[in-house]
């Protein structure tokens, strides 16, 4: 199937007449879905944690694209929708108002959480604060995720699946992909699971802080929001389920 996304850069269209300022800084949150599922007390409760295509589980997936600063959320969203979003499960949220039908399939390919309506939550809470329409928001997030999947970092994580990787090794791969600035523009979400001797640190998310300087947003060294985060590069082994 022909991809309609630019693999390494995407220019963002702005929504005319938006009632709030567009975002300039973002966090691209990329999940390692098997790691996320390993942290759940009842993984069967999440459809995306059921056995699925191995190739999908060996790729970073889209968690979200979050406008900054932290806490910027639910822009022009009704109290009723906010309450529904904060309730357990997102089945009661309205579908994302996409105009391009092709985006639905493309989104499902990079966001396994669509099975749990994660896309609805991300649009309601975060997408509404970007100043973009739903198509622009999701198209941008999809393209950034596709770029992340074509990196040495992705290959390192995929190769480590079923074993461990150190954050130091991840730092080296990220530097090779994006330059030294990434160490001040990225963070890892690591959760600890198990008890006693079985307790282990599990890789859950890779979060990259990006800045739109006015020319658009892309996942490359020129768009890193350096100073927004600090990546710890240690020899601690991280489990990669």
From TrEMBL:
The keyword Signal is annotated on this UniProt entry: yes
Keywords assigned: Signal
Signal peptide boundaries: 1-23
Keyword Metal-binding recorded: no
Entry-linked Gene3D superfamilies: Ribonuclease T2-like
GO molecular function, one term: ribonuclease T2 activity
GO biological process: RNA catabolic process
Pfam families for this protein: Ribonuclease_T2
Family: Belongs to the RNase T2 family.
Name of this chain's protein: Uncharacterized protein
Native species: Pararhodospirillum oryzae
């Amino acid at each position: 199937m022909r991809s309609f996304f630019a693999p390494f850069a995407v220019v963002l269209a702005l929504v005319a007449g938006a009632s709030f300022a567009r975002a300039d800084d973002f966090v691209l949150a990329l999940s390692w879905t098997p790691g996320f599922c390993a942290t759940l007390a009842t993984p069967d409760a999440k459809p995306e944690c059921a056995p699925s295509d191995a190739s999908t589980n060996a790729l970073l997936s889209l968690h979200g694209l979050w406008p900054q600063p932290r806490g910027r959320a639910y822009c022009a969203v009704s109290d009723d929708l906010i309450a529904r979003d904060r309730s357990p499960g997102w089945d009661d949220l309205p579908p994302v108002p996409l105009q391009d039908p092709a985006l639905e399939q493309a989104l499902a390919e990079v966001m396994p959480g669509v099975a749990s309506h994660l896309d609805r939550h991300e649009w309601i809470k975060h997408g509404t604060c970007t100043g973009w329409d739903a198509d622009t928001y999701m198209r941008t997030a999809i393209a950034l995720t596709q770029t992340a999947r074509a990196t040495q970092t992705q290959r390192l994580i995929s190769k480590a699946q079923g074993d461990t990787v150190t954050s130091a090794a991840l730092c080296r791969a990220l530097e090779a992909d994006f330059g030294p600035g990434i160490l001040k523009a990225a963070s890892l979400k690591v959760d600890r699971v198990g008890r006693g001797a079985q307790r282990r640190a599990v890789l859950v998310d890779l979060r990259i802080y990006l800045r739109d300087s006015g020319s658009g947003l892309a996942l490359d060294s020129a768009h890193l929001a350096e100073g927004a985060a600090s990546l710890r590069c240690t020899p601690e082994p991280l489990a990669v389920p």
